Amino acid sequence: MGGVLEGVRVLDFGRYIAGPYCATLLAEFGADVIRVEKRDGSEDRFVAPVGEGGEGALFLQVNRNKKCITLDPMKAEGQEVMRRLIATADVVVANLPPQTLRAMKLDYESLKAIKPDIILTTATAFGGPGPWSDRVGFDGVAQAMSGSVYMTGAGDPPYRAAVNWVDFGTALHCAFGTLAALIERGKSGRGQIVEGALLATALSFTNATLIEQAVINVNRVPTGNLGQTAAPADIYRTKDGWVLCQVTGHPLFKRWARLIGEEELWLNDPRFADDISRGNNGRIISERMARWCAERTTQEAVDALGQAMIPTGPVLSPQQALDHPHIRAAGFMQDVDYPGLPKQAPVARAAVRLSETPGNIATRPPTLGEHTDLILAELGYDEAAIAALRRGGII
């Protein structure tokens, strides 16, 4: 497909998001990524089904630009196929528990015995060392243990985010680490393990809150959408919807006071002298902003705030997000065909652009085992051998 990672082969044993999306990012910039999947389809293929074959929205998002081979790696013949595959690879991506890696012979020592300079990119729920190293977990568990869920919503009950930000953040960390490992291998010839963890990602994203707690023991409690360290920062009702506005820093606060025509009132009151003071008195500022927004439509509010260079945006439903003129014009998503879909799927491109070597969605996600015969032929299997593997339930 071309791209900055052309010539790099990645074997993707990942499941759900952290591993597969890491591999997807590498594929979007040119890596040759082979998804290795169970013979009857791995469970992450069928999350939120949208097509005739049961393939899900998540699968369509995080598996574009890949080839797919089906394989049972727990049988001797499957292990031989894996050995040949690994010998051709630069990177193995597997967000699987350590005990599963060992059982599948995808642990680093087993991989090195086949390809000494291999890079193993893993992601676990809790990382290690530690008493929870071998436990399994999903995105929501890491959210809950990081302080994020505690601080979200109004407190009773606490809320996790509906979006899997921990999984996608871990994928980003793993892709970054894989690129760093490839650069190091280019210098020294050495492979290494790249290890991500859902809990580590969640803690890194909530780290400022944890630092504040550790240093000054502030003991914050959740306040819904109301910001706590600056104001106005909240979600406000308009005549026909909702808008989010976030003002942080005195220059922005001055612009906000100027916009509503009350500079003298807000800029000379010591209760609003700096961000933290404004955050401590945020309900007062938010009440004034709520009245300002209630007098306007959503479009009028976001246009006025935007023209005043104040961060704002409308609260959009999923359909409104798809239809928003800026999202459409910016080309953040690409319509992708897939067998059995009633219409094209809007797949989000990698959310970073390189001016000279941009990423590219070149191929749709693979159907189950779509490239099995092609890949096995590349590994030296003839038609008779491939047929025998199929009869034996290996592929």
UniProtKB/TrEMBL annotation:
Gene3D superfamilies: Crotonobetainyl-coa:carnitine coa-transferase, domain 1 (3.40.50.10540), formyl-coa transferase, domain 3 (3.30.1540.10). It comes from Bradyrhizobium vignae. This is CoA transferase. InterPro entries: CoA-transferase_III, CoA-Trfase_fam_III, CoA-Trfase_III_dom3_sf, CoA-Trfase_III_dom_1_sf. PANTHER family: L-CARNITINE COA-TRANSFERASE, SUCCINYL-COA--D-CITRAMALATE COA-TRANSFERASE. Keywords: Transferase. One of its GO terms (molecular function) is transferase activity. The keyword Glycosyltransferase does not apply.
